[in-house]
Protein backbone atom coordinates (compact mmCIF):
# COMPACT_ATOMS: atom_id res chain seq x y z
CA UNK A 1 0.00 0.00 0.00
CA UNK A 2 3.01 2.25 0.57
CA UNK A 3 6.13 1.62 -1.42
CA UNK A 4 9.51 3.31 -1.52
CA UNK A 5 11.50 2.56 -4.65
CA UNK A 6 15.06 3.79 -4.45
CA UNK A 7 14.01 6.89 -2.59
CA UNK A 8 16.49 9.47 -1.41
CA UNK A 9 15.22 12.58 0.32
CA UNK A 10 16.87 15.91 0.98
CA UNK A 11 16.21 18.92 3.13
CA UNK A 12 17.73 21.88 1.31
CA UNK A 13 20.91 20.56 -0.21
CA UNK A 14 21.51 17.97 2.48
CA UNK A 15 20.60 14.40 1.64
CA UNK A 16 19.04 12.91 4.77
CA UNK A 17 17.52 9.63 3.57
CA UNK A 18 19.38 7.30 1.24
CA UNK A 19 18.17 4.50 -1.03
CA UNK A 20 15.02 3.57 0.79
CA UNK A 21 13.57 0.51 -0.88
CA UNK A 22 10.76 -1.26 0.92
CA UNK A 23 7.02 -1.64 0.92
CA UNK A 24 4.36 -1.77 3.58
CA UNK A 25 1.23 -3.82 3.14
CA UNK A 26 -2.31 -3.16 4.35
CA UNK A 27 -2.94 -4.23 7.95
CA UNK A 28 0.72 -4.02 8.91
CA UNK A 29 1.81 -2.24 12.06
CA UNK A 30 5.30 -1.11 11.32
CA UNK A 31 7.71 -0.01 14.03
CA UNK A 32 10.33 2.34 12.66
CA UNK A 33 13.14 2.30 15.17
CA UNK A 34 16.10 4.64 15.18
CA UNK A 35 18.22 6.79 17.42
CA UNK A 36 17.94 10.55 17.64
CA UNK A 37 18.77 12.10 14.31
CA UNK A 38 18.51 8.80 12.40
CA UNK A 39 15.85 10.15 10.05
CA UNK A 40 12.53 8.88 11.45
CA UNK A 41 10.75 12.23 11.28
CA UNK A 42 12.23 12.94 7.87
CA UNK A 43 10.86 9.64 6.56
CA UNK A 44 7.33 10.46 7.71
CA UNK A 45 7.65 14.00 6.36
CA UNK A 46 8.77 12.53 3.05
CA UNK A 47 5.49 10.60 2.82
CA UNK A 48 3.65 13.88 3.49
CA UNK A 49 5.66 15.59 0.75
CA UNK A 50 7.80 17.93 2.82
CA UNK A 51 11.21 16.91 1.47
CA UNK A 52 12.84 16.88 -1.93
CA UNK A 53 12.61 13.35 -3.26
CA UNK A 54 14.57 11.35 -5.78
CA UNK A 55 13.19 7.95 -6.73
CA UNK A 56 9.59 6.83 -6.59
CA UNK A 57 6.97 6.62 -3.89
CA UNK A 58 3.72 4.76 -4.40
CA UNK A 59 0.55 4.87 -2.36
CA UNK A 60 -2.20 2.40 -3.21
CA UNK A 61 -0.34 1.62 -6.42
CA UNK A 62 -0.28 5.23 -7.59
CA UNK A 63 2.71 7.58 -7.72
CA UNK A 64 2.57 9.70 -4.61
CA UNK A 65 4.98 12.28 -5.96
CA UNK A 66 2.27 13.38 -8.40
CA UNK A 67 0.08 14.43 -5.47
CA UNK A 68 0.80 17.84 -3.94
CA UNK A 69 1.50 17.85 -0.19
CA UNK A 70 -1.77 19.52 0.84
CA UNK A 71 -3.75 16.85 -1.03
CA UNK A 72 -2.00 13.87 0.48
CA UNK A 73 -4.02 13.64 3.72
CA UNK A 74 -7.15 13.43 1.56
CA UNK A 75 -5.88 10.12 0.16
CA UNK A 76 -6.50 8.63 3.59
CA UNK A 77 -3.21 9.45 5.30
CA UNK A 78 -3.23 10.62 8.91
CA UNK A 79 -0.08 12.06 10.44
CA UNK A 80 0.63 12.93 14.02
CA UNK A 81 3.90 14.89 14.11
CA UNK A 82 6.37 14.70 16.93
CA UNK A 83 5.61 18.29 17.87
CA UNK A 84 1.87 17.96 18.02
CA UNK A 85 0.94 21.63 17.65
CA UNK A 86 -2.57 21.93 19.02
CA UNK A 87 -4.22 25.29 18.61
CA UNK A 88 -4.71 26.29 22.20
CA UNK A 89 -7.47 28.85 21.60
CA UNK A 90 -9.54 26.28 19.71
CA UNK A 91 -11.53 23.61 21.51
CA UNK A 92 -10.44 19.98 21.57
CA UNK A 93 -13.09 19.13 18.99
CA UNK A 94 -12.15 22.02 16.71
CA UNK A 95 -8.58 20.76 16.77
CA UNK A 96 -9.72 17.27 15.85
CA UNK A 97 -11.81 18.64 13.00
CA UNK A 98 -9.04 20.74 11.42
CA UNK A 99 -7.75 18.15 8.91
CA UNK A 100 -11.29 17.33 7.80
CA UNK A 101 -11.95 21.03 7.21
CA UNK A 102 -8.69 21.43 5.33
CA UNK A 103 -9.49 18.43 3.12
CA UNK A 104 -13.10 19.66 2.61
CA UNK A 105 -14.42 16.32 3.72
CA UNK A 106 -18.02 17.50 3.83
CA UNK A 107 -20.43 17.63 6.77
CA UNK A 108 -21.83 14.13 6.57
CA UNK A 109 -18.50 12.33 6.18
CA UNK A 110 -16.92 14.51 8.85
CA UNK A 111 -19.68 13.65 11.33
CA UNK A 112 -19.39 9.93 10.61
CA UNK A 113 -15.64 10.00 10.93
CA UNK A 114 -15.78 12.02 14.16
CA UNK A 115 -18.22 9.50 15.66
CA UNK A 116 -15.78 6.74 14.81
CA UNK A 117 -12.88 8.64 16.37
CA UNK A 118 -14.93 9.16 19.55
CA UNK A 119 -15.69 5.42 19.60
CA UNK A 120 -11.96 4.79 19.71
CA UNK A 121 -11.18 7.65 22.12
CA UNK A 122 -14.39 8.17 24.14
CA UNK A 123 -12.62 10.27 26.76
CA UNK A 124 -12.17 13.00 24.16
CA UNK A 125 -15.89 13.32 23.66
CA UNK A 126 -16.15 14.39 27.28
CA UNK A 127 -13.58 17.14 26.80
CA UNK A 128 -14.71 18.14 23.32
CA UNK A 129 -15.68 21.67 24.31
CA UNK A 130 -12.60 22.47 26.38
CA UNK A 131 -9.97 24.81 24.98
CA UNK A 132 -7.06 22.67 23.81
CA UNK A 133 -4.80 24.95 25.85
CA UNK A 134 -6.36 23.55 29.02
CA UNK A 135 -5.63 19.85 28.47
CA UNK A 136 -2.57 18.13 29.89
CA UNK A 137 0.39 17.18 27.73
CA UNK A 138 -0.65 13.53 27.74
CA UNK A 139 -4.26 14.32 26.86
CA UNK A 140 -2.92 16.56 24.09
CA UNK A 141 -1.25 13.49 22.60
CA UNK A 142 -4.62 11.77 22.54
CA UNK A 143 -6.10 14.79 20.76
CA UNK A 144 -3.27 14.66 18.23
CA UNK A 145 -4.01 10.96 17.69
CA UNK A 146 -7.69 11.73 17.15
CA UNK A 147 -6.75 14.42 14.66
CA UNK A 148 -4.60 11.95 12.71
CA UNK A 149 -7.46 9.45 12.69
CA UNK A 150 -9.89 11.93 11.09
CA UNK A 151 -8.31 11.44 7.67
CA UNK A 152 -6.15 8.40 8.37
CA UNK A 153 -8.53 5.82 6.96
CA UNK A 154 -5.80 3.89 5.17
CA UNK A 155 -2.49 4.88 6.71
CA UNK A 156 -1.78 6.41 10.11
CA UNK A 157 1.73 7.64 10.90
CA UNK A 158 2.61 8.48 14.50
CA UNK A 159 5.93 10.11 15.29
CA UNK A 160 7.22 8.97 18.70
CA UNK A 161 3.76 8.97 20.26
CA UNK A 162 4.91 7.37 23.52
CA UNK A 163 7.65 9.90 24.12
CA UNK A 164 7.02 11.68 27.41
CA UNK A 165 3.73 9.90 28.10
CA UNK A 166 3.17 8.89 31.71
CA UNK A 167 2.89 5.07 32.02
CA UNK A 168 -0.88 5.06 32.57
CA UNK A 169 -1.47 7.23 29.53
CA UNK A 170 0.94 5.17 27.44
CA UNK A 171 -1.16 2.09 28.23
CA UNK A 172 -4.31 4.00 27.35
CA UNK A 173 -2.73 5.17 24.10
CA UNK A 174 -1.76 1.60 23.18
CA UNK A 175 -5.32 0.48 23.98
CA UNK A 176 -6.68 3.12 21.64
CA UNK A 177 -4.39 1.83 18.88
CA UNK A 178 -5.67 -1.69 19.49
CA UNK A 179 -9.25 -0.40 19.28
CA UNK A 180 -8.34 1.25 16.01
CA UNK A 181 -6.96 -2.04 14.68
CA UNK A 182 -10.09 -3.88 15.79
CA UNK A 183 -12.36 -1.35 14.13
CA UNK A 184 -10.51 -1.52 10.82
CA UNK A 185 -8.41 -4.58 10.07
CA UNK A 186 -6.99 -3.21 6.83
CA UNK A 187 -5.52 -0.02 8.26
CA UNK A 188 -1.74 0.41 8.12
CA UNK A 189 0.14 1.94 11.04
CA UNK A 190 3.66 3.33 11.08
CA UNK A 191 4.95 4.19 14.53
CA UNK A 192 8.41 5.61 15.13
CA UNK A 193 10.33 5.17 18.35
CA UNK A 194 13.86 5.58 19.59
CA UNK A 195 13.19 3.15 22.42
CA UNK A 196 12.27 -0.21 20.84
CA UNK A 197 11.00 -1.62 24.14
CA UNK A 198 7.95 0.64 23.91
CA UNK A 199 6.67 -1.13 20.80
CA UNK A 200 7.55 -4.70 21.70
CA UNK A 201 4.61 -7.01 21.18
CA UNK A 202 2.74 -4.32 19.33
CA UNK A 203 4.28 -4.07 15.90
CA UNK A 204 3.92 -6.77 13.27
CA UNK A 205 7.16 -5.76 11.65
CA UNK A 206 10.19 -3.67 12.50
CA UNK A 207 12.41 -1.53 10.33
CA UNK A 208 15.54 0.00 11.72
CA UNK A 209 16.74 3.36 10.46
CA UNK A 210 20.34 4.39 10.93
CA UNK A 211 21.94 7.47 9.45
CA UNK A 212 19.19 7.77 6.86
CA UNK A 213 19.31 4.13 5.77
CA UNK A 214 16.57 1.62 6.44
CA UNK A 215 17.02 -2.08 7.03
CA UNK A 216 14.75 -4.92 8.06
CA UNK A 217 15.23 -5.43 11.78
CA UNK A 218 14.11 -7.07 14.93
CA UNK A 219 13.46 -5.33 18.18
CA UNK A 220 16.45 -5.95 20.35
CA UNK A 221 15.34 -5.64 23.96
CA UNK A 222 18.92 -5.11 25.12
CA UNK A 223 19.49 -2.07 22.98
CA UNK A 224 19.25 1.16 24.87
CA UNK A 225 18.09 4.31 23.17
CA UNK A 226 20.55 7.17 23.16
N1 LIG B 1 15.34 21.29 8.73
C1 LIG B 1 16.48 20.61 8.70
N2 LIG B 1 17.59 21.14 8.10
C2 LIG B 1 18.75 20.43 8.06
N3 LIG B 1 18.91 19.21 8.58
C3 LIG B 1 17.86 18.65 9.18
C4 LIG B 1 16.58 19.31 9.27
N4 LIG B 1 15.73 18.50 9.92
C5 LIG B 1 16.44 17.39 10.22
N5 LIG B 1 17.72 17.47 9.78
C6 LIG B 1 18.76 16.44 9.94
O1 LIG B 1 18.29 15.23 9.39
C7 LIG B 1 18.70 14.13 10.18
C8 LIG B 1 17.50 13.32 10.55
O2 LIG B 1 16.65 14.06 11.39
P1 LIG B 1 15.25 13.55 11.87
O3 LIG B 1 14.60 14.66 12.60
O4 LIG B 1 14.52 12.94 10.74
O5 LIG B 1 15.68 12.39 12.88
P2 LIG B 1 14.78 11.60 13.93
O6 LIG B 1 15.14 10.18 13.76
O7 LIG B 1 13.37 11.97 13.80
O8 LIG B 1 15.37 12.11 15.32
P3 LIG B 1 14.64 12.34 16.74
O9 LIG B 1 14.65 11.02 17.42
O10 LIG B 1 15.52 13.32 17.43
O11 LIG B 1 13.28 12.87 16.50
C9 LIG B 1 19.47 14.71 11.35
O12 LIG B 1 20.84 14.60 11.08
C10 LIG B 1 19.05 16.15 11.39
O13 LIG B 1 20.10 16.95 11.86
MG1 LIG C 1 12.05 12.78 15.03
Structure commentary:
The protein is of the alpha/beta class and 226 residues long. It has helices spanning 40-48, 92-102, 107-120, 122-126, 137-151, 167-183, and strands spanning 2-11, 14-24, 29-33, 52-59, 62-63, 77-80, 155-158, 188-193, 205-210, 213-217. The chain has one domain (24-49, 68-217): Rossmann fold (3-Layer(aba) Sandwich). 31% of the residues lie in helices and 27% in strands. The strands form two sheets. A six-stranded mixed beta sheet has the order 6-7-8-3-9-10. Strands 2-1-4-5 form a four-stranded antiparallel beta sheet, with helices on one face. Strand 7 (155-158), helix 6 (167-183) and strand 8 (188-193) form a beta-alpha-beta unit. It starts with a strand and ends in a 9-residue tail after the last strand.
Summarize the model shown.
With 226 residues, this protein is α/β, with parallel strands linked by helices. The chain has one domain (24-49, 68-217): Rossmann fold.
Structural class, by secondary structure, is: alpha/beta
How many individual domains?
Answer: 1
The order of strands across the largest sheet is 6-7-8-3-9-10
CATH homologous superfamily caption: P-loop containing nucleotide triphosphate hydrolases
